[in-house]
Amino acid sequence: MIGVQIKTGILAIRFSVNEWLTSHLKGQKTVGFCSFVTYFNQLLFSLLMRRYVAKEYVVSKTTATYWNVLAENNKSKWESVEGTSGMLEQLTLAIDETSGDYTRLTRFKAGADTKEFGGKSHDYPEEILIISGRLYDVAFEQWLETGHFASRPPGEVHGPFICEEDCLVLEVSFPSQSVIAT
């Protein structure tokens, strides 16, 4: 997206310069004008691209082709969340090893209860989407059902959670945006 915006901006600059030169040189003898505009365009594009290409965006979050994360043959990729007696499982879908940002699925099994851990908060923002099932958030005194979404700011307390039926949650977390200075 950034590259497209940069290129669009460069094209807009090039178009504006061409338009200005054309309007100001109308009716004048313009021997070699076309080659000057071509040269100017190439020079401008080269200078601008040299500045922005060096800052090319690199995808550091892991990537994967399509795969069914819920398929039975991928069950072994899920890991039990420590201290939950197997009542919660998680599957990291993508992670940026440098920043720590990640996308993960968490599966709460029917009967799961995290009261033992109490409420929880992070020093970074996170987003969650209930994919299926329902989950009770004690901090908000609210049942979260399929389709519920939250974009949590840093420090917002959530949980503990109570789950009466299986529930699948998509979580996107941004440790790179931590409000605590390192």
* Count of separate DSSP helical elements: 2
Radius of gyration: 26 Å
What is the overall pLDDT average?
A: 80
Q: What strand order characterises the main sheet?
A: 1-2-3-9-4-7
Estimated share of beta-strand residues? 15-25%
Quickly give the CATH architecture of the largest domain. Sandwich
Assign an overall shape: globular
Q: Which CATH first-tier class of the largest domain would you pick? A: Mainly Beta
Q: How would you characterize this protein structure?
A:
- This protein is of the alpha+beta class.
- It is built from 2 helices and 9 strands; from the N terminus they run H-H-E-E-E-E-E-E-E-E-E.
- The strands form 2 sheets. A 6-stranded antiparallel sheet has the order 1-2-3-9-4-7, with no helix packed on it. Strands 6-5-8 form a 3-stranded antiparallel sheet, with no helix packed on it.
- Helix 1 runs antiparallel to helix 2.
Layout of strands and helices, then pairs:
Layout: H1 2-24, H2 33-53, E1 79-80, E2 88-95, E3 102-108, E4 126-132, E5 134-137, E6 142-145, E7 149-152, E8 161-162, E9 167-173
Antiparallel strand pairs: 1-2, 2-3, 3-9, 4-7, 4-9, 5-6, 5-8
Helix pairs in contact: 1-2
Quick structural summary:
The chain is 24% helix and 25% strand.
Can you give keywords for this protein?
six-stranded antiparallel beta sheet; three-stranded antiparallel beta sheet; globular; Jelly Rolls; 25% strand; 2 domains; 2 helices; 24% helix; disordered N terminus; alpha+beta; 182 residues
